[in-house]
């Protein structure tokens, strides 16, 4: 199932409004927004994926529409999936984007493969 392009457009618009330097990358069958060469936020199917870090993780899971990110049968701590309940309002989506942006300077970049 392809990712929700409307969600991608909404994220893109907020990042541009915030004057964030980013690029887009197709990953996991979805669209990721990379900030400082690190995965920050993205869209898979009809959900937003946010990399918020372990410090914000437990509190985030208590919010409506937020659940652990689980691709492999194990949750990926520091990453969450957000349903419409968490992102329907622009202000809510902007909140999650800001949370991911706040964590981004602390995030480790993925290791680049050898060429």
Number of helices: 4
CATH class term: Alpha Beta
Structural class: alpha+beta
Helix content: 25-40%
Strand content is: 25-35%
Assembly state (oligomeric): single chain
Uncertain runs are none
What would CATH call the architecture?
A: Alpha-Beta Complex
CATH topology: Aspartate Aminotransferase, domain 1
Name the overall outline: globular
| Helix-strand topology string | HEEEEHEEHH
Largest sheet: 6 strands, antiparallel
Overall strand count: 6
Placed side by side, the strands forming the largest sheet appear as 1-2-3-4-6-5
Domain module tally: 1
Gyration radius from CA atoms, angstroms: 13 Å
* Euclidean distance between termini CA atoms: 32 Å
Description:
Helix 1 packs across helix 4. The model has no long low-confidence stretch (mean pLDDT 92). With 115 residues, the protein is an alpha+beta fold. A hairpin with a 2-residue loop joins strand 1 and strand 2. It is globular, with a radius of gyration of 13 Å. The protein has one domain: Aspartate Aminotransferase, domain 1 (Alpha-Beta Complex), CATH 3.90.1150. The protein starts with a helix and ends in a 12-residue tail after the last helix.
């Amino acid at each position: 199932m392809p990712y929700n392009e409307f969600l991608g457009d909404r994220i893109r618009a907020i990042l541009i409004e915030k004057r964030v330097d980013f690029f887009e990358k197709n990953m996991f069958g979805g669209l990721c927004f990379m900030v400082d060469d690190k995965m920050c936020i993205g869209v898979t199917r009809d959900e937003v994926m946010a990399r918020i870090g372990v410090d914000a993780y437990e509190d985030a899971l208590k919010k409506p529409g937020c659940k652990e990110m689980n691709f492999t049968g194990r949750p990926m701590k520091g990453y969450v999936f957000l349903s419409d309940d968490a992102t329907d309002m622009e202000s809510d989506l902007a909140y999650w984007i800001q949370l991911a942006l706040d964590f981004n300077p602390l995030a480790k970049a993925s290791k680049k493969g050898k060429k």
